Amino acid sequence: MTPSPVALEIAVTSPQGAVVARDGGADRVELCVGLELGGLTPSQALVETTHETGIPAHALVRCRPGGFVHTPDEVELMVREVRTVLRSGATGVVVGALRPDRTLDEDALRRFVDAARSVSATAEITLHRAIDHAVDPVAAAATLAALGFTRVLTSGGAPTAGAGAATIARMVDAAGPVQVMAGAGVTPADIGALVATGAAAVHLSAKRAAPDSAHAGVPMGGADDGSAHFVTDAEVVAAARRALDA
């Protein structure tokens, strides 16, 4: 069986998750913490330890949950985080920022790209799903090559990549040399339709709730609903790999 040319990326929150993704046939991982918040920047030690697993890891750089319009102080913090995660062993970074009018914050994005290039000329730079909150994701995708991006992660502006497949196909056409990676709510059953868009990669969290990890009844913060934390499910990773290779 010839392996699919479409890459498989798994979002993970631990070195253990990276090992599951690696052993299940993923091409790379996106590393973050707080997956239930949409993902936040991992610590230096987490990046270092994940790097030791051997699978290429792209670190999400997002300094807080919520929207993607960032203050100058937040941008400065993320510029520093970009440099830190790359120096700690990440092979790429995942970044994003919007202006209040829901266009890409090109000034912030250039700073992130410049920070990455100051550490590594070969670092891969992905625009995250901030693009799905942009007023025109297709037009935004067309600007990314000039900004120095390697790829963009998108659901086509829809709640799930499956629902946004038609827009993802338009983004593939608009993005030129920038790779388009389909992600958001992806299951192995969706992969065939997403490959048909022309996407260069598919992205999924392949997560399941960890057993006995909840602390219902003793909340640990305003956003704590007592849910368990997530771990990477080996069966889902393997099923995604099979779907790509079918």
UniProtKB/TrEMBL annotation:
Keyword presence, Repressor: no
Main location: cytoplasm
Transmembrane segments: none
Key words of the record: Cytoplasm
Domain of life: Bacteria
SUPFAM superfamilies: CutC-like
InterPro entries cross-referenced by the UniProt entry: CutC-like, CutC-like_dom_sf
Coiled coil: none
Presence of keyword Cytoplasm: yes
Gene3D superfamilies: Copper homeostasis (CutC) domain
UniProt-annotated location(s): Cytoplasm
PANTHER family membership: COPPER HOMEOSTASIS PROTEIN CUTC, COPPER HOMEOSTASIS PROTEIN CUTC HOMOLOG
HAMAP family: CutC
Similarity comment text for this entry: Belongs to the CutC family.
Protein name: PF03932 family protein CutC
